[in-house]
Amino acid sequence: MQTQVKTQAGVILGIPATSDNCQVTTTENNAPTVFPLGQTTVLWTVMDAAGNKATAIQQVTVNDTKAPVPTIADLAEITAECGVTVTRPTATDEVDGLITATTAEPLTYASQGEYTITWKYTDKSGNEAIQTQQVVVKDITAPVIGKKVSKVAIIGGWGVSDMQAFLASEGYTANALSAVPDAAALATYDAVVLLRTTGNNDLANWVKKGGLLITEWTASEWALNSAKLLNATHEAFGCNGNTPVTFAATVNGTKLGHELPNPYTESDRTECFITFAGLGEGVEVLATRAGKAAILGGTSGAGYSMIIGYDWGDGFPATPSLTGTLLLNALTFGSSVPTDIAVSASSVSCDAIVNYATPVANDNCSAVTVTQTAGLASGSVFPLGVTTNTFVAKDAAGNETVASFTVTVTDDVKPTVLIKDLTVQLDAEEKPQLHQQW
After folding, report:
1. What is the 3-state secondary structure (H, E, C) of the chain?
2. 12 is a domain residue
3. Total-model pTM
Protein backbone atom coordinates (compact mmCIF):
# COMPACT_ATOMS: atom_id res chain seq x y z
CA MET A 1 0.00 0.00 0.00
CA GLN A 2 1.39 3.39 -0.99
CA THR A 3 1.26 6.43 1.33
CA GLN A 4 0.81 10.06 0.29
CA VAL A 5 4.01 11.89 -0.67
CA LYS A 6 4.73 15.07 1.32
CA THR A 7 7.65 17.43 0.55
CA GLN A 8 9.61 19.45 3.10
CA ALA A 9 7.79 22.52 1.91
CA GLY A 10 4.59 21.02 3.17
CA VAL A 11 3.11 20.36 -0.29
CA ILE A 12 1.20 17.08 -0.39
CA LEU A 13 1.49 15.61 -3.90
CA GLY A 14 -1.07 12.87 -3.37
CA ILE A 15 -0.98 9.17 -4.40
CA PRO A 16 -0.81 8.39 -8.12
CA ALA A 17 -3.15 5.67 -9.37
CA THR A 18 -1.09 2.84 -10.91
CA SER A 19 -1.87 -0.60 -12.38
CA ASP A 20 0.00 -3.38 -14.17
CA ASN A 21 -0.88 -6.79 -15.61
CA CYS A 22 1.55 -8.26 -13.11
CA GLN A 23 2.85 -5.99 -10.38
CA VAL A 24 4.05 -2.38 -10.00
CA THR A 25 7.30 -2.42 -8.05
CA THR A 26 8.35 1.26 -7.76
CA THR A 27 6.72 4.68 -7.92
CA GLU A 28 9.07 7.69 -7.98
CA ASN A 29 8.98 11.46 -8.70
CA ASN A 30 11.49 14.25 -9.12
CA ALA A 31 9.73 16.75 -6.84
CA PRO A 32 12.07 19.33 -5.28
CA THR A 33 12.56 19.53 -1.54
CA VAL A 34 11.04 23.00 -1.48
CA PHE A 35 8.69 24.21 -4.18
CA PRO A 36 9.35 27.73 -5.45
CA LEU A 37 6.63 30.32 -5.98
CA GLY A 38 4.74 29.66 -9.21
CA GLN A 39 4.33 26.46 -11.26
CA THR A 40 6.62 23.42 -11.01
CA THR A 41 6.39 20.30 -13.23
CA VAL A 42 6.77 17.00 -11.36
CA LEU A 43 7.62 13.83 -13.37
CA TRP A 44 6.22 10.61 -11.93
CA THR A 45 7.80 7.27 -13.01
CA VAL A 46 6.37 3.81 -12.26
CA MET A 47 8.12 0.51 -12.99
CA ASP A 48 6.98 -3.11 -12.87
CA ALA A 49 8.94 -6.21 -11.97
CA ALA A 50 10.00 -6.74 -15.59
CA GLY A 51 11.54 -3.26 -15.76
CA ASN A 52 8.80 -1.74 -17.86
CA LYS A 53 8.24 1.97 -17.12
CA ALA A 54 5.47 4.50 -17.49
CA THR A 55 5.54 8.26 -16.75
CA ALA A 56 3.02 10.97 -15.90
CA ILE A 57 3.24 14.75 -15.47
CA GLN A 58 1.88 16.57 -12.41
CA GLN A 59 1.75 20.43 -12.24
CA VAL A 60 2.24 21.96 -8.77
CA THR A 61 1.39 25.65 -8.35
CA VAL A 62 2.51 27.55 -5.22
CA ASN A 63 0.63 30.81 -4.54
CA ASP A 64 1.87 33.59 -2.13
CA THR A 65 -1.08 34.53 0.09
CA LYS A 66 0.83 36.23 2.94
CA ALA A 67 0.87 40.05 3.15
CA PRO A 68 4.09 41.95 3.94
CA VAL A 69 4.75 42.75 7.62
CA PRO A 70 5.55 46.44 8.38
CA THR A 71 9.00 46.99 9.86
CA ILE A 72 7.53 49.32 12.50
CA ALA A 73 4.27 48.08 13.94
CA ASP A 74 2.99 51.54 14.94
CA LEU A 75 4.27 54.51 12.96
CA ALA A 76 5.03 57.55 15.11
CA GLU A 77 3.32 60.86 14.50
CA ILE A 78 5.48 63.25 12.48
CA THR A 79 5.54 66.83 13.77
CA ALA A 80 7.08 69.95 12.27
CA GLU A 81 6.62 73.70 12.60
CA CYS A 82 6.98 74.96 9.05
CA GLY A 83 6.89 71.92 6.79
CA VAL A 84 8.27 68.43 6.40
CA THR A 85 9.09 65.82 3.81
CA VAL A 86 8.30 62.35 5.09
CA THR A 87 10.29 59.19 4.43
CA ARG A 88 8.53 56.13 3.07
CA PRO A 89 8.40 53.29 5.64
CA THR A 90 9.19 49.69 4.75
CA ALA A 91 7.88 46.19 5.34
CA THR A 92 9.29 42.66 5.02
CA ASP A 93 7.71 40.00 2.80
CA GLU A 94 8.46 36.28 3.15
CA VAL A 95 8.86 35.93 -0.62
CA ASP A 96 9.86 39.33 -1.97
CA GLY A 97 11.97 40.60 0.95
CA LEU A 98 12.03 44.36 1.60
CA ILE A 99 8.94 46.27 0.43
CA THR A 100 8.83 50.09 0.32
CA ALA A 101 5.46 51.66 1.01
CA THR A 102 3.45 53.56 -1.56
CA THR A 103 0.79 56.18 -0.99
CA ALA A 104 -1.61 58.39 -2.89
CA GLU A 105 -0.92 61.23 -0.44
CA PRO A 106 1.90 63.75 -0.92
CA LEU A 107 5.27 63.27 0.73
CA THR A 108 5.89 66.98 1.36
CA TYR A 109 3.69 69.13 3.61
CA ALA A 110 4.30 72.87 3.62
CA SER A 111 0.98 74.16 4.97
CA GLN A 112 -0.17 74.28 8.55
CA GLY A 113 -2.57 71.49 9.45
CA GLU A 114 -3.06 67.85 10.40
CA TYR A 115 -2.78 65.14 7.75
CA THR A 116 -3.22 61.37 7.54
CA ILE A 117 -1.04 59.29 5.22
CA THR A 118 -2.23 55.84 4.20
CA TRP A 119 0.77 53.63 3.44
CA LYS A 120 0.38 50.47 1.35
CA TYR A 121 2.86 47.59 1.19
CA THR A 122 2.15 45.38 -1.85
CA ASP A 123 4.16 42.30 -2.81
CA LYS A 124 4.51 40.89 -6.29
CA SER A 125 1.58 38.50 -5.70
CA GLY A 126 -0.74 41.39 -4.89
CA ASN A 127 -0.89 40.75 -1.14
CA GLU A 128 -1.26 44.05 0.69
CA ALA A 129 -0.74 45.48 4.17
CA ILE A 130 -1.94 48.96 5.14
CA GLN A 131 -0.76 51.43 7.78
CA THR A 132 -1.72 55.01 8.56
CA GLN A 133 0.55 57.77 9.88
CA GLN A 134 -0.30 61.20 11.21
CA VAL A 135 1.54 64.35 10.12
CA VAL A 136 1.08 67.56 12.12
CA VAL A 137 2.50 70.83 10.84
CA LYS A 138 2.04 73.45 13.52
CA ASP A 139 4.06 76.61 14.01
CA ILE A 140 4.44 77.18 17.75
CA THR A 141 7.41 79.56 17.63
CA ALA A 142 6.57 83.21 18.07
CA PRO A 143 8.12 85.86 15.81
CA VAL A 144 11.29 87.64 16.84
CA ILE A 145 11.07 91.42 17.02
CA GLY A 146 14.17 93.20 15.88
CA LYS A 147 16.80 92.95 13.20
CA LYS A 148 17.63 89.38 12.28
CA VAL A 149 21.31 88.44 12.22
CA SER A 150 22.39 87.69 8.65
CA LYS A 151 26.08 88.64 8.39
CA VAL A 152 28.62 87.17 10.80
CA ALA A 153 32.35 87.79 11.27
CA ILE A 154 34.34 84.86 12.68
CA ILE A 155 37.57 86.22 14.10
CA GLY A 156 40.69 84.27 15.12
CA GLY A 157 40.85 80.83 16.65
CA TRP A 158 40.92 77.39 15.10
CA GLY A 159 38.26 75.74 13.02
CA VAL A 160 36.99 79.04 11.62
CA SER A 161 36.66 77.59 8.12
CA ASP A 162 34.40 74.82 9.46
CA MET A 163 32.25 77.35 11.26
CA GLN A 164 32.13 79.51 8.15
CA ALA A 165 31.00 76.56 6.01
CA PHE A 166 28.37 75.57 8.56
CA LEU A 167 26.87 79.06 8.80
CA ALA A 168 26.86 79.36 5.00
CA SER A 169 24.89 76.11 4.80
CA GLU A 170 22.36 77.65 7.19
CA GLY A 171 21.87 80.74 5.01
CA TYR A 172 24.19 83.20 6.78
CA THR A 173 26.82 85.36 5.17
CA ALA A 174 29.91 84.43 7.17
CA ASN A 175 33.45 85.73 6.78
CA ALA A 176 36.52 84.23 8.48
CA LEU A 177 38.92 86.96 9.61
CA SER A 178 42.33 86.77 11.24
CA ALA A 179 41.93 90.02 13.19
CA VAL A 180 39.28 92.54 14.21
CA PRO A 181 38.50 94.82 11.25
CA ASP A 182 38.25 98.60 11.55
CA ALA A 183 35.12 100.37 12.76
CA ALA A 184 33.76 100.96 9.24
CA ALA A 185 34.03 97.28 8.34
CA LEU A 186 32.60 96.18 11.68
CA ALA A 187 29.53 98.31 11.05
CA THR A 188 28.58 96.00 8.17
CA TYR A 189 28.23 92.96 10.47
CA ASP A 190 25.33 91.92 12.68
CA ALA A 191 27.31 89.51 14.85
CA VAL A 192 30.91 88.68 15.71
CA VAL A 193 32.16 85.32 16.98
CA LEU A 194 35.49 85.91 18.74
CA LEU A 195 37.63 82.78 19.11
CA ARG A 196 40.95 82.42 20.93
CA THR A 197 41.91 86.06 20.36
CA THR A 198 41.39 89.49 21.86
CA GLY A 199 39.29 92.36 20.65
CA ASN A 200 39.94 96.09 20.68
CA ASN A 201 38.17 99.38 21.34
CA ASP A 202 36.51 99.30 17.92
CA LEU A 203 34.94 95.94 18.72
CA ALA A 204 33.85 97.02 22.20
CA ASN A 205 32.23 100.18 20.78
CA TRP A 206 30.56 98.15 18.01
CA VAL A 207 28.91 95.94 20.64
CA LYS A 208 27.73 98.92 22.65
CA LYS A 209 26.13 100.38 19.52
CA GLY A 210 23.99 97.31 18.96
CA GLY A 211 26.18 94.39 17.84
CA LEU A 212 26.00 90.79 19.04
CA LEU A 213 29.28 89.40 20.40
CA ILE A 214 29.75 85.68 21.08
CA THR A 215 32.98 84.57 22.70
CA GLU A 216 34.24 81.20 23.86
CA TRP A 217 37.15 80.07 25.97
CA THR A 218 40.06 82.52 26.21
CA ALA A 219 38.37 85.25 24.14
CA SER A 220 36.07 85.74 27.12
CA GLU A 221 38.98 87.10 29.18
CA TRP A 222 39.20 90.15 26.93
CA ALA A 223 35.42 90.62 26.85
CA LEU A 224 35.08 90.54 30.64
CA ASN A 225 38.36 91.61 32.18
CA SER A 226 39.56 94.13 29.58
CA ALA A 227 36.54 95.45 27.67
CA LYS A 228 34.25 94.98 30.69
CA LEU A 229 31.28 94.32 28.43
CA LEU A 230 29.53 92.47 31.26
CA ASN A 231 29.73 92.95 35.00
CA ALA A 232 31.76 89.79 35.62
CA THR A 233 35.34 88.57 35.41
CA HIS A 234 37.05 85.67 33.70
CA GLU A 235 38.93 83.99 36.55
CA ALA A 236 40.50 80.68 35.49
CA PHE A 237 40.00 77.61 33.35
CA GLY A 238 40.50 73.89 33.61
CA CYS A 239 39.57 70.53 32.12
CA ASN A 240 37.71 68.01 34.26
CA GLY A 241 36.10 65.65 31.75
CA ASN A 242 32.73 65.96 30.07
CA THR A 243 30.11 67.28 32.43
CA PRO A 244 26.50 68.00 31.40
CA VAL A 245 25.54 71.59 30.72
CA THR A 246 22.14 72.63 32.08
CA PHE A 247 20.24 75.54 30.53
CA ALA A 248 18.57 77.93 32.93
CA ALA A 249 14.79 77.71 33.30
CA THR A 250 14.39 81.29 32.07
CA VAL A 251 13.18 82.84 28.84
CA ASN A 252 16.73 83.34 27.56
CA GLY A 253 17.97 80.03 28.94
CA THR A 254 15.19 78.22 27.09
CA LYS A 255 15.92 80.26 23.97
CA LEU A 256 19.59 79.26 24.01
CA GLY A 257 18.75 75.61 24.65
CA HIS A 258 16.11 75.36 21.90
CA GLU A 259 16.12 71.85 20.33
CA LEU A 260 19.02 70.77 22.56
CA PRO A 261 18.76 68.11 25.27
CA ASN A 262 18.73 69.63 28.73
CA PRO A 263 21.11 68.86 30.29
CA TYR A 264 23.36 68.04 27.40
CA THR A 265 26.92 66.93 26.84
CA GLU A 266 28.97 66.40 23.71
CA SER A 267 32.34 64.67 23.44
CA ASP A 268 35.30 67.09 23.38
CA ARG A 269 32.94 70.09 23.55
CA THR A 270 31.88 70.16 27.21
CA GLU A 271 35.18 69.14 28.76
CA CYS A 272 37.21 72.29 29.44
CA PHE A 273 35.50 75.17 31.24
CA ILE A 274 36.17 78.71 32.37
CA THR A 275 35.45 79.86 35.90
CA PHE A 276 33.55 83.15 36.18
CA ALA A 277 33.71 85.41 39.21
CA GLY A 278 32.09 88.60 40.44
CA LEU A 279 28.82 88.22 38.60
CA GLY A 280 27.06 91.53 39.06
CA GLU A 281 23.98 93.45 38.05
CA GLY A 282 22.73 92.88 34.52
CA VAL A 283 24.53 89.54 34.08
CA GLU A 284 22.28 86.57 33.35
CA VAL A 285 23.41 82.99 33.81
CA LEU A 286 22.10 81.21 30.72
CA ALA A 287 23.54 77.78 31.57
CA THR A 288 25.41 76.05 34.36
CA ARG A 289 27.91 73.23 34.64
CA ALA A 290 28.31 71.34 37.92
CA GLY A 291 26.32 74.09 39.62
CA LYS A 292 28.57 76.89 38.35
CA ALA A 293 27.94 79.44 35.60
CA ALA A 294 28.88 78.05 32.18
CA ILE A 295 27.35 80.63 29.83
CA LEU A 296 26.76 84.29 30.65
CA GLY A 297 24.67 86.83 28.77
CA GLY A 298 23.65 90.43 29.08
CA THR A 299 23.24 93.72 27.32
CA SER A 300 26.29 95.84 26.63
CA GLY A 301 24.98 99.27 25.79
CA ALA A 302 22.57 98.72 22.91
CA GLY A 303 24.16 95.38 22.04
CA TYR A 304 24.40 91.94 23.59
CA SER A 305 27.36 89.90 24.82
CA MET A 306 27.24 86.13 25.24
CA ILE A 307 30.20 84.59 27.02
CA ILE A 308 30.36 80.84 26.44
CA GLY A 309 32.69 79.50 29.07
CA TYR A 310 33.89 76.30 27.48
CA ASP A 311 36.04 75.08 24.66
CA TRP A 312 34.58 74.18 21.27
CA GLY A 313 36.99 71.30 20.87
CA ASP A 314 39.97 73.43 19.81
CA GLY A 315 37.81 75.10 17.24
CA PHE A 316 34.44 74.50 15.67
CA PRO A 317 33.94 70.79 14.90
CA ALA A 318 33.80 69.71 11.26
CA THR A 319 30.56 67.90 12.10
CA PRO A 320 28.75 70.54 14.17
CA SER A 321 26.12 68.31 15.83
CA LEU A 322 24.87 69.89 19.07
CA THR A 323 27.50 72.63 18.89
CA GLY A 324 26.02 73.86 15.62
CA THR A 325 22.57 74.06 17.17
CA LEU A 326 23.99 76.02 20.10
CA LEU A 327 25.63 78.51 17.74
CA LEU A 328 22.43 79.02 15.74
CA ASN A 329 20.50 79.60 18.97
CA ALA A 330 23.14 82.07 20.17
CA LEU A 331 22.81 84.09 16.96
CA THR A 332 19.11 84.67 17.66
CA PHE A 333 20.17 86.93 20.53
CA GLY A 334 21.25 89.47 17.94
CA SER A 335 17.65 90.20 17.03
CA SER A 336 17.54 93.50 18.86
CA VAL A 337 14.43 95.12 20.29
CA PRO A 338 13.94 98.88 20.57
CA THR A 339 15.55 100.49 23.58
CA ASP A 340 14.13 103.21 25.82
CA ILE A 341 14.56 106.77 24.58
CA ALA A 342 15.08 109.87 26.71
CA VAL A 343 14.92 113.40 25.22
CA SER A 344 14.55 116.94 26.41
CA ALA A 345 11.48 119.00 25.66
CA SER A 346 11.62 121.72 23.06
CA SER A 347 12.70 125.15 24.21
CA VAL A 348 9.51 126.64 22.78
CA SER A 349 6.98 123.98 23.84
CA CYS A 350 6.54 121.44 26.63
CA ASP A 351 6.92 118.44 24.33
CA ALA A 352 9.32 116.97 21.76
CA ILE A 353 9.24 115.44 18.31
CA VAL A 354 10.78 111.98 18.57
CA ASN A 355 11.89 109.76 15.71
CA TYR A 356 12.70 106.09 16.21
CA ALA A 357 13.17 103.03 14.06
CA THR A 358 9.85 101.24 13.78
CA PRO A 359 10.42 97.66 14.96
CA VAL A 360 10.67 94.91 12.38
CA ALA A 361 10.17 91.21 12.98
CA ASN A 362 11.02 87.87 11.45
CA ASP A 363 9.61 84.39 11.86
CA ASN A 364 10.78 80.83 11.41
CA CYS A 365 7.95 79.97 9.03
CA SER A 366 5.93 82.84 7.60
CA ALA A 367 5.64 86.55 6.99
CA VAL A 368 5.01 88.72 10.04
CA THR A 369 2.76 91.72 10.60
CA VAL A 370 3.87 94.29 13.16
CA THR A 371 1.17 96.45 14.71
CA GLN A 372 1.56 99.29 17.18
CA THR A 373 -0.98 98.87 19.96
CA ALA A 374 0.06 101.65 22.32
CA GLY A 375 2.00 104.89 22.25
CA LEU A 376 2.74 107.24 19.39
CA ALA A 377 4.19 106.67 15.96
CA SER A 378 7.71 107.73 15.05
CA GLY A 379 7.87 111.41 14.21
CA SER A 380 5.01 112.30 16.55
CA VAL A 381 5.00 115.04 19.15
CA PHE A 382 5.52 113.28 22.49
CA PRO A 383 4.20 115.02 25.61
CA LEU A 384 6.15 115.68 28.78
CA GLY A 385 6.58 112.52 30.83
CA VAL A 386 6.77 108.85 29.92
CA THR A 387 5.00 107.35 26.90
CA THR A 388 5.05 103.59 26.46
CA ASN A 389 5.14 102.35 22.89
CA THR A 390 4.01 98.76 22.40
CA PHE A 391 4.30 96.70 19.24
CA VAL A 392 2.83 93.26 18.54
CA ALA A 393 4.38 90.95 15.93
CA LYS A 394 2.04 88.23 14.67
CA ASP A 395 2.83 85.39 12.28
CA ALA A 396 0.48 83.47 9.99
CA ALA A 397 -0.13 80.82 12.65
CA GLY A 398 -1.27 83.41 15.17
CA ASN A 399 1.82 83.31 17.39
CA GLU A 400 2.55 86.71 18.88
CA THR A 401 5.48 88.54 20.41
CA VAL A 402 5.09 91.84 22.26
CA ALA A 403 7.85 94.40 22.65
CA SER A 404 7.65 97.74 24.43
CA PHE A 405 9.91 100.69 25.00
CA THR A 406 9.43 104.07 26.59
CA VAL A 407 9.95 107.60 25.37
CA THR A 408 10.65 109.94 28.25
CA VAL A 409 10.43 113.69 27.64
CA THR A 410 11.87 115.84 30.39
CA ASP A 411 11.70 119.57 30.81
CA ASP A 412 15.30 120.71 31.07
CA VAL A 413 14.69 124.31 29.95
CA LYS A 414 15.08 126.90 32.66
CA PRO A 415 12.22 129.40 32.95
CA THR A 416 12.78 133.01 32.00
CA VAL A 417 12.05 135.93 34.35
CA LEU A 418 11.26 139.46 33.19
CA ILE A 419 11.27 142.27 35.70
CA LYS A 420 10.90 146.03 35.22
CA ASP A 421 12.90 148.67 37.03
CA LEU A 422 10.89 151.04 39.26
CA THR A 423 11.72 154.57 40.28
CA VAL A 424 9.92 155.87 43.36
CA GLN A 425 9.75 159.62 43.99
CA LEU A 426 8.17 161.41 46.90
CA ASP A 427 5.90 164.36 46.26
CA ALA A 428 5.64 167.49 48.42
CA GLU A 429 3.53 165.62 50.91
CA GLU A 430 6.17 162.86 50.86
CA LYS A 431 3.79 160.44 49.17
CA PRO A 432 5.44 157.95 46.75
CA GLN A 433 4.98 158.52 43.06
CA LEU A 434 5.53 155.32 41.00
CA HIS A 435 7.26 155.63 37.66
CA GLN A 436 7.71 152.33 35.82
CA GLN A 437 10.48 152.23 33.29
CA TRP A 438 9.53 150.32 30.12
Report:
1. CCCCEECCCCCEEECCCCCCCCCEEEEEECCCCCCCCEEEEEEEEEEECCCCEEEEEEEEEECCCCCCEECCCCCCCEEECCCEECCCCEEEECCCEEEECECCCCCEECCCEEEEEEEEEECCCCCEEEEEEEEEECCCCCCEECCCCCEEEEECCCCHHHHHHHHHHCCCEEEEECCCCCHHHHCCCCEEEEECCCCCHHHHHHHHCCCEEEEECCHHHHHHHHCCCCCCEEEEEEECCCCCEEECCCHHHHHHCCCCCCCECCCCCCCEEEEEECCCCCCEEEEEECCEEEEEEEEECCEEEEEECECCCCCCCCCCHHHHHHHHHHHHHHCCCCCCEEEECCCCCCEEEECCCCCCEECCCCCEEEEEEECCCCCEEEECEEEEEEEEEEECCCCEEEEEEEEEEECCCCCCCCCCCEEEEECCCCCEEEEECC
2. yes
3. 0.51
